[in-house]
Amino acid sequence: MTEEEARRWLKDHFTVSRETEEKLETFIAFLKREAESQNLIAASTLAHIWDRHIVDSAQLLRFCPEGPQNWIDLGSGAGFPGLVVALLGPHRVTLVESRGRRIDYLQRAVALLDLESRVTIAGMPLERVETAPYSVISARAFAPLDRLFDLAARFSTNKTLWLLPKGRNAAKEWEGVQPVWRGEFRIESSVTDAEAGILVGHLTGKTEKHTAAAAKRHQRR
Ligand SMILES: C[S@@+](CC[C@H](N)C(=O)[O-])C[C@H]1O[C@@H](n2cnc3c(N)ncnc32)[C@H](O)[C@@H]1O
């Protein structure tokens, strides 16, 4: 969609107050300035931030239950989708990011947008983040699904909603992990790219076959 259509889409789907609109503009201006001195988003998307980043992030909120969620966003990078979700909804959001300059950027963005009371930055590799249950887990362009589940299943309960924009291979990726992982996922199409899929659902555990094989390996040790 064009940038104008993307702005309209946002207003049609969410209650965007004047203050939130101003904050989104402030965030985009800040991102553009920062992108001059560090690699934050693909250069080809700089002229399409509303479509490729703001709406692409915001659309995840369509699948989220009402009310404030305890949300963790893995590999937030320039703040997508985590910061957009925090700007548009009442959620408490933890942004996980391991790269120093991006952590510094995220800290300044959160202060600029006055989000300190609801946004926490876990500035470290995900592997070092303290285990805790979250009600929503999101990750865009973070890792292939098998690695993502391996790294992040410890933040999930049977009730946790996973929101994973996965591009054009969403169905294949979900099929690919099924020998190991059990869950109930559906694929929603992305409003910013009709061919891209978003995996939406719950992870319920590892398959019995996999659990039995792991137990056997453990016994042999
Ligand atoms: C391709 S970028 C995507 C950024 C953002 N989610 C987006 O879609 O624009 C992946 C991000 O994950 C971060 N990352 C990669 N491995 C990580 C890890 N193990 N723990 C935390 N962050 C990690 C990288 O530093 C990078 O900022």
TrEMBL record:
Cell compartments where the protein resides: Cytoplasm
Protein name, per record: Ribosomal RNA small subunit methyltransferase G
GO cellular component: cytosol
Gene Ontology MF terms: rRNA (guanine-N7-)-methyltransferase activity
Annotated residues for binding of S-adenosyl-L-methionine: 75, 80, 129-130, 140
Pfam short name (any one): GidB
Source organism: Sphingorhabdus contaminans
Task performed by this protein: Specifically methylates the N7 position of guanine in position 527 of 16S rRNA.
UniProt catalytic activity: guanosine(527) in 16S rRNA + S-adenosyl-L-methionine = N(7)-methylguanosine(527) in 16S rRNA + S-adenosyl-L-homocysteine
Presence of the UniProt keyword Lipid biosynthesis in the record: no
Lineage: Bacteria, Pseudomonadati, Pseudomonadota, Alphaproteobacteria, Sphingomonadales
Entry similarity comment: Belongs to the methyltransferase superfamily. RNA methyltransferase RsmG family.
EC number: 2.1.1.170
Keyword rRNA processing belongs to the record: yes
Keywords assigned: Cytoplasm, Methyltransferase, rRNA processing, S-adenosyl-L-methionine, Transferase
InterPro entries attached to this UniProt entry: rRNA_ssu_MeTfrase_G (IPR003682), SAM-dependent_MTases_sf (IPR029063)
